[in-house]
Amino acid sequence: MTLINIDTKLADAIHRNYLLIPVINRFGIRLGFGDKSIKTICKEHQIDPEFFTAILNTFTFENYFSEKKLKAFPILQIVDYLRKTHTYYRDVQLKVIDFNINYLIESCPAPNNHLQLIRKFFSEYERELLAHLRREDENTFPYIQKLIEIQQKEDKEQLFKELSKKYSIKVFEREHDNVDEKLFDLKNILIKYLHGDYDQVYCNAVIFELFRLEKDLVEHTRLEDKILIPMVEEIELNLTGKANDKK
């Protein structure tokens, strides 16, 4: 397994895994960068090249997930990336799937009850996913920001005690739904049980986009579960003054 590194041409990385295109877009990078290396492009966009390559490798290689390396990055850098990923889901990916489903239904020569059920199923899933993202944007990420600010205060233990009455990362863990499970069910319905007259091209487009979203969500959730949550738990422990007891 040859990992992507800062000297890799970004175009070559995309040829290896086209699913990286929306990932690099989240960093503000648009296509048309020629044969420039990742190092050069990151310098132009003021991006940490090591963090950038860690994310690209996570998405490209199923067995790659360097917890030690990822935990070495500032936690707010990870939060910023997660926020941008949320924006991508809301503003791009969900809308693309919604558009393709509508097009699939409209292209049918006759009403198809199976497709109407799929439309309803996806609408319900979309509402749940958006609610999930909103909880993180409005509760979890601001909480982490406050933790970072509290760390710089002299009375940090007392401030954390007051803050933890309202929220903690344990609340996030309890509310952290497996948002990719229902997505699998929706794919399964389309693949196994879709009947009636429908346009196969549009149907395939819907399925491809669902697979793409599922893959993205798996990596997104893994980053939250394996990196973000442990990092926040460590900060919380330090703010209680019990970090030494743990050791």
Features:
247 residues; mainly alpha; 12 helices; 0% strand; globular
Give your account of this protein's structure.
The chain is an all-alpha fold and 247 residues long. 73% of the residues lie in helices and 0% in strands. The protein has twelve helices and no strands. The protein has helices at 10-16, 20-26, 38-45, 49-60, 67-70, 75-106, 113-150, 156-163, 169-175, 181-193, 200-240, 243-246. It is globular. The chain starts with 9 loop residues before the first helix and ends with a helix. The mean pLDDT is 90.
Largest beta-sheet details: none
Beta-strand residue percentage: under 5%
Distance between the terminal alpha carbons, to the nearest Å?
36 Å
Please tell me what the overall shape is.
Answer: globular
Oligomer kind: single chain
Q: Note poorly predicted spans.
A: none
Helix content: over 70%
Q: Whole-number average pLDDT?
A: 90
Question: Helix/strand-derived class?
Answer: mainly alpha
Rg (C-alpha, Å)? 21 Å
